[in-house]
Amino acid sequence: MVRQRTIIQDVDGNRLFTRDEMKEIVKIASHAGVAAYNRKHADELEKKHDIAVENTVKLLEGYNAMKLHCSSAISRTEESLTPSSLQAVLLEVFDRKGFLQVEGILSSKRRTELIIEHIDTMLRVYEKQCIQKRKPYYECLVMAYINGLSHAEICEKKGMSERTIYNWINQGLDDMAVLLFGATVI
């Protein structure tokens, strides 16, 4: 049986493509479309990951300040009252804006406590992971961001090159970003 080649023509009768040529065009276009979609999806995931790592850095850099905020901020309005300031506070309570400011402080403290609790939990999880795998990432991350040591100081303590310490800290940030923000950054 002879296979018939069908030629596709335009409305004026001009030859455009054979059926096989059309199949090949569709195949190439499909592969190009899938590749473009995959690149775009990969770029979006990379952006989400980068944002999560940046946010992880901010959380770890602000960790000690947030801890201080939690221990220093008032937790009840009674804690902030002294007999000498009672009259001024009573006047503020009747001022709707002043009352909201006190509520804002209390709300901020509760949110900060929740964030710190999450960070502490994920740090404990990460510490266990690193101990099990015998990786120094957790320890270097804590030295750099919680203890405030410079890369040079960490190099000295660990007896490693600055490049190695830099890589270990970056790996720690990547891992902590996943722990803190979940699968959306993988």
Q: What key attributes describe this structure?
A:
186 residues; single chain; mainly alpha; 74% helix; 7 helices; 4% strand; two-stranded antiparallel ribbon
Low-confidence stretches: 77-81, 89-96
Question: Which geometry do the CA atoms define?
Answer: elongated
Oligomer: single chain
Order of helices and strands: EEHHHHHHH
How many H/I helices?
7
Rg on CA atoms, Å: 30 Å
Would you write up a description of this structure?
The radius of gyration is 30 Å and the shape is elongated. The chain is 74% helix and 4% strand. Mean pLDDT is 80; it is low at 77-81 and 89-96. Helix 2 packs across helix 4 and helix 6 crosses helix 7 (162-181). The chain is mostly helical and 186 residues long. A two-stranded antiparallel sheet has the order 1-2. It contains 7 helices and 2 strands; from the N terminus they run ββααααααα.
SSE blueprint:
Layout: E1 7-9, E2 15-18, H1 19-61, H2 63-72, H3 86-94, H4 96-133, H5 137-146, H6 151-158, H7 162-181
Antiparallel strand pairs: 1-2
Helix pairs in contact: 1-7, 2-4, 4-7, 5-7, 6-7
